[in-house]
Amino acid sequence: MSDKSEFTRLGVFKTYKLYVGGKFPRSESGRVYEVTDSKSGAWLANAPLSSRKDARDAVVAARKAVPGWSGATAYNRGQVLYRVAEMLEGRRDQFTQEVVAAEGLSKSKAAAVVDSGVDRWVWYAGWTDKIAQVVGGANPVAGPFFNLSTPEPTGVVAVLAPQDSSFLGLVSVLAPVIATGNTAVLIAAERAPLPALCLGEVLATSDVPAGVVNILSGRTAELAAPLASHRDVNALDLTGAPGELAVDLERAAADNLKRVRRPHPGESWTADPGTSRLTAWLETKTVWHPIGV
Amino acid sequence: MAENSAFAYAPAPESRAILDLAPSYGLFIDGEFTEAADGTVFKSVSPSSEEVLAEVARAGEADVDRAVRAARKAFTSWSALPGAERGKYLFRIARILQERARELAVLESLDNGKPIRETRDVDLPLVAAHFFYYAGWADKLAYAVPGWSPKDGGGAGPRPLGVAGQVIPWNFPLLMLSWKIAPALAAGNTVVLKPAETTPLSALFFADVCRQAGLPRGVVNILTGYGDAGAALVAHPDVDKVAFTGSTEVGRAIARTVAGTGKKVTLELGGKAANIVFDDAPIDQAVEGIVNGIFFNQGHVCCAGSRLLVQESVQDELLEALKRRMARLRVGDPLDKNTDIGAINSAEQLARITALAEAGEAEGAQRWAPPCELPSAGYWFAPTLFTGVTQAHRIAREEIFGPVLSVLTFRTPAEAVEKANNTPYGLSAGIWTEKGSRILSMANKLRAGVVWANTFNKFDPTSPFGGYKESGYGREGGRHGLEGYLDV
User: Fold this and answer.
1) B268 has catalytic annotation
2) pLDDT band at A2 (very low <50, low <70, confident <90, very high)
3) Distance CA B325, CA B322 (A)
4) Residue A228 has what pLDDT?
5) Which residues on B lie below 8 Å from A127 (Cβ)?
6) Is the ipTM of this complex over 0.95?
7) Cβ(A234)–Cβ(A154) under 8 Å?
8) A157: closest CA of chain B, how far (Å)
C-alpha cells in the first residue's frame, strides 16, 4: 500500500432493535422497513417492522413487570426516573443528532428540543411521590368511619407515541405512565422511530426493571389494533393515532373498557403539561374503616 | 454494657478514616468560608469522649447582618430562576449527600454522640430523601398550594417569601437542616441557617456539598455560634421567614420577638408523647416500639414516647418484657456498630436529665435501670424506667429529652385519652392495639400532630410533622411543609 494513500474511515452502522422485557430482540417476523432523513430523504437505517405477535409478547412482558413496579415505593420510582434523566443528559449529543435527522430541525433547535425532553423527564421524576398528595385525600363522610381515597396505577398502558415529535413528545407521553407505577407498551412514531429505539438503550442502563417499558417500531395502525383489543391491556394513549384510526381504536378499547386518552391534535409539547397525563392512568381506591371502641 | 457470656459481641467500630476533619472551620457566608468579624471561636466537643473535634467561628451580630445581606442579594436571581432549574440544584445536592453519606454519618455520630447505626441507617437516608422530595416540588408549586389562583399571583405560581432565618437543634443536626433548607430553596427562598453550638460541624460540611453542587453564592449561608446569633437572626428586620426547632421556652421568646412584624414563623418545639398500650396489643412488638420510642437517639427526640400508658391488666407482663429488653440494650461508643444507645449530647443536657431523674425519685416514683457499665469519659446516662408515676410528677409533665421512661396506667380508653391529653404539649402519640377501629377512635381524640399506631418514630419526607398547643405551629415535611415558605 502506498504511503501517500488517504482514505475516509468507514463508519460502523448501528442496528436498531426493539426493547421488550429488558432485552433487545429483532421483530419475530424478521421484517424491517426503511427509515429516511426527514429533510434529505437519505436512508438512515432499517427499523424493525414489528408484528402483532411482537405486540402480544410486549404485553406479556409489561404485565409481568406490573407487580414489582407498581409495588415499588414512590420514592424508589422517583430515584429510578431521575437516574434515567442522568443517563439522558450524558447522551444529549446523540439524541440531538437523532432529532435533526428525524424532524429536519437545525442542530441548535434540535439541541433545545432534547434539553426540553430531559427536563420534562426530570419533571415527571419529581411527581412520583407527590401526585397522591394532590389527587388523593381523606373524605369527611357522615358517620364514624375513616375514609381514604388513594390513587393506584391502572396496570399496563399501550402508548402511541406522537408522530410529530420524536423525542420531546415521546418523553412527554411515556414518562407519566411509568411515574405513576404503570408499565408501558410504546409504539414509536412510524416515520421517525429511531429516537424511541435509542431510548430503550438508555432505559436498559438506568435501573428501570425489565418489562416496565417495552418499545416497538413499525406500522402504527397494524400494531395499535391488537393492543386496543387486547384484554390484558388496561389503558390506551391514542396521541399518535391519526383521526379515523383513533376512533376505530377507541371502539375496540370499549370491549374491556380500557381507559382511553384521545389525541389532542396540535398539542403543544413545550407547554406546561399539568397533571392530566398522570391522572389518566390512575384509579382511585377508597377504603372505609370504622372508628369506634 | 459488659456481658460475661461467651456470646458477647466483639466491638465493631466504624472507621473514622473516611472523615477528613480540619482543625478549624469558618462561617459560610456568600459562598465563602470566613472568620467571624470579631475573630471569636469556640470548640466542638465529641460527647462520647470529650475530645475536641474542631474549632469553629462564633458568629456575632455583624456576621448575622452580613449573611442576611448575602441571602437578600442572592434572592433576586434565585427566585427568578425557573422552578425546574432550582429543582436541578436540589437533585444534585440529594445525589451528593447520597454519595457522601458514610462520611457524614461518621461526622454526625462524632459530633452528636448518637449511634452510627442511627446516623447511617436512619438520618442520612432521610436527609437525602428530603432534598430529593423537595427538588421535585420546585417546578410544581402551583399544585402544592390549594389556595392559590392565577388572579392572585398573576403569573407562574405562588411566590417565595424572601430570606428565611432558620435555627436548628442539636438532636438531629443534618436532618433538621434538610427539613428546613430543602423546602425553602425549592420554593425560591434563600436561607441563613444557624446550627446548635454543640453540633455545628455537619452544617459546615453541608456547605461544602452546596459548593460541589454549584449552588449560587449566597443562596445558603451557615452561621455557627451561640444563642445570641440565633436571636439576632430571628430579630433581623430583613428576614422574612423564621423557622425554629428547639425548646418551647425559646419558641415562646421567638413568638414574642416576631409579634407585630410581617415575618412568617414556623415553630417545632417540645413534646411529652404518650405511648398507649392496650391489653390486646402484641406485647413483643409493643416492647420494641416502646424501646424505639424513648431510647432512639438517647431520647433526644421531641416526639419521644416518654410516657408509657399501659392498661392495668397487662402492666406486669409488659414491664417484665420491657425490663428484659432494656437489659440487652448496649450503651457505648457511638461509632461501634453494635451500640444501641450513644452519648448524651452535652454536659449541660446530662445535668438536666440527672436532675429530673433525681426529682422523680424524690417525688416517690420507683427507679429502675439495668445493671450496666458506663464508659468513664464522656456524657453517659443508663436507660432508665420509672414506675409508680402519677400525673402530678415532674417526670410525667416535663420534657426530659433523655433516655428516661415514665410508666403510668389506665383502665378504660377514655381514661387513656384524658391522661394522654393532660399536657401542654401536643406533638405525638402512640397507640398499640390489634383493633383497627380502636386505633382510629383513639387517634381522633388524641390532641397530637402525629399519631403512630403499632409503630413509633417513623419519618418520611412526604409526611407532615408538627404539633398542637405548645408543641408549636406550622408543619414540616410533605406538601404542607411548603406552605411555610410561600406567599399564599
Assistant:
1) yes
2) low
3) 5
4) 97
5) 136, 140
6) no
7) yes
8) 24
